[in-house]
Each structure stands twice: as C-alpha cells, then as structure tokens.
Design goal:
By secondary structure, this protein is of the alpha/beta class. Helices cover 29% and strands 27% of the residues. Strands 3, 5, 6, 9, 10, 17 and 18 form a 7-stranded mixed β-sheet that branches. Strands 13-12-11-14-15-16 form a 6-stranded parallel β-sheet, sandwiched between helices. A 3-stranded antiparallel β-sheet has the order 2-1-4, with no helix packed on it. The chain starts with a strand and ends with a strand.
Length: 319
C-alpha cells in the first residue's frame, strides 16, 4: 500500500510502498482522508522524542471498517485515570504507524462512527484538534454558558475548533491572531471579537472588547501569558495545551491567589473525552473548518502550507 513515511529529520517524508502485518488485536481500516497537524511538521524537524525511521506518519483519519465510516481516536494507551494519561500514552503516527496510508491496522476500540453530517474531509480533520479542544474547554476549564473565553492563535486547527465548541456551548468567544486576514475570517464566523497581537495596543483593544476573561485557552505560553492574566477575573481558569513561545516569565503571583485563579495543562484527551466530543459535535451539528484539501500524492504542498502557518483551519489529504 502507498504510505507517507518518516525516514530522517529535516527532510520531507517519503511516499513509498509499505507492507505491514496486523497484530492479533488489530483490524483493517481503509483510509479515505487524513489531516495534518503541527505535530507532523515537528516530527520532520526532529522535535519529538522516540522517532522511529520507516514509520507511517499521521494521527488524523477517517475510513471504512466493515461498511461503517469511522473516525479514529488518535490517543493510544491513555490508561484508567481520567485526570491524566498513563506513562505509555502516545499519539498515533510515529512511533506507531499512522493514518497517512491507504490502510491502517488498529484496535477496534479506537474506532467510532463518523458524524453523518460531516464530509470525509471534515471528519478526517476532527480527531486531534477536536479532542484537544474539548478536553481543554470542558474536562479541564469546566467552561460554562455565558462565560467569556479567549482562544489564542486562531487559525490553527485546535484553536479554531475550541472557538467553535465554546460558541456552541453558549460562551462569549474572543480570540487573538497574528494576521489581519485571519482576524477578518474569524470575525466572519460570528465570534464576539478578536485582535491582532502584532498590533501595538492589542491588549488594550482586547480589554475594551471583553472587559474580563473567565477562561483562556492558549498554545503559546511565553511572556504573553503574564499580559493576558491582567484580563483574567476571579475564579478564572487558564489552560495551556502547548508552549510554542517557551517559558512564562514575569507572572505576578498575587493576582493568582487573590483572585483564586488556576493555571493548568492539558494534553489531547481520554477515550471518554473523545466519545463526549463526538456526541457534542453531533448534538450541535458542528462542522470542522477545513482550510485546503490536497491529493495524497501532493502531500509535499500540504506540508509546506502548514509549515508557513497560512492555514485557517485544517489541511487535509484525500486518498
């Protein structure tokens, strides 16, 4: 079967024929679409531990198993504790064979019926972004109807999905972005308001828009967190699911304890989170935002688009 395979760092993965034998507890799924994540870019740059050459990449996918159209839960070996993952937890696609192939062999426990209102491309784009956003908002931050929530870095798959889920839950959604084009596109989706963080007075403008923040969902960390905390109100929750800008300097502890604030981390999600995500998406008829679809053989352009950060939503490969 054709597959997109990680071989060495700092090079584009290879498209090659692979022959794989299933394990005793695995079933065969025919992949029809798969989506990229920034994780795939970081793997090619050698920024993940435990990289294994000749491994099929990809965590997001939709396919057919026994006549059912299924989405794949990309989190492997979460464990029994809903509070955090087990030491064996990992994400599908390097070091385990992933979804960038014509077929995947996987445990049937990872297969869930794809929401019927989603296209193949939309369903393929849902798992990683969806479960990460769902857990951050609901399992961790306990977002409530009517609260003000800030989603930073909108345009990326997780951030955009988080904004959609939060809006469907009845929250007031505000966002930041580094592009005026993305700012206009996100505003057109009906969110309450947003700012371009590259503009000089972005924090003041955000304060004018939202007044205060009950929940912040962020993937960058860095020094901007200390700025955003100025807008966080009593009992607010800040959830980090990434750290692209590194260490968080300059945080004043006094507002943290006086306002009874919480800063917490979140990674992917449990099988329960994934199941709850699918139920929420079905109940609210949420459609995953797809930025661009590429043919499987044109994967190089898909990787290039994600690398430069031009996307507004998910980049998808169609088999």
């Amino acid at each position: 079967m054709k597959a997109i395979v990680f071989e060495t760092i700092d090079t584009l993965p290879s498209l090659k024929d692979m022959s794989i034998s299933p394990k005793a507890d695995e079933v065969e799924v025919d992949i029809i679409a798969a989506a990229l994540n920034h994780r795939d870019i970081w793997i090619t740059k050698g920024l993940y531990p435990g990289l294994v050459p000749d491994t099929i990449m990809g965590a997001d996918g939709v396919g057919y198993y026994n006549g059912r159209r299924v989405v794949i839960n990309p989190g492997l070996a979460w464990g029994e504790n809903e509070q955090f993952q087990s030491p064996k937890f990992r994400v599908l696609g390097v070091p385990d064979h992933g979804t960038f192939a014509e077929k995947i062999y996987i445990s049937p426990k990872a297969l869930f019926d794809a929401p019927s209102h989603l296209t193949d491309e939309e369903a393929a784009a849902l798992p990683v972004a969806g479960v990460t956003a769902y857990r951050a908002l609901f399992s961790r931050a306990k977002l409530q109807k009517g609260e003000n929530v800030l989603i930073t870095g909108i345009g990326g798959g997780v951030a955009l999905m988080a904004a959609q889920l939060a809006e469907a839950a009845g929250a007031n959604v505000f966002f930041t972005t580094g592009s005026d084009d993305k700012l206009e596109n996100a505003l057109a989706l009906g969110f309450k308001g947003g700012v371009n963080y590259r503009n000089e007075n972005w924090l003041e403008n955000l304060a004018t828009l939202c007044g205060h923040l009950d929940v912040i969902v962020d993937s960058a960390a860095g020094d901007n967190i200390s700025k955003l905390l100025k807008l966080a109100t009593y009992g607010s929750r800040i959830v980090l699911y990434g750290g692209a800008l590194g260490k968080m300097g300059g945080i004043n502890p006094q507002p943290l304890f006086w306002k009874q604030m919480e800063i917490m981390g979140s990674t992917m999600g449990s099988p329960h989170d994934f199941e709850q995500l699918l139920a929420f998406v079905n109940d609210h008829q949420i459609r995953t935002r797809v930025d661009k679809v590429y043919h499987f053989d044109d994967y190089g352009h898909a990787f290039a688009r994600l690398s430069v950060g031009e996307q507004m939503g998910k980049v998808v490969l169609k088999l």
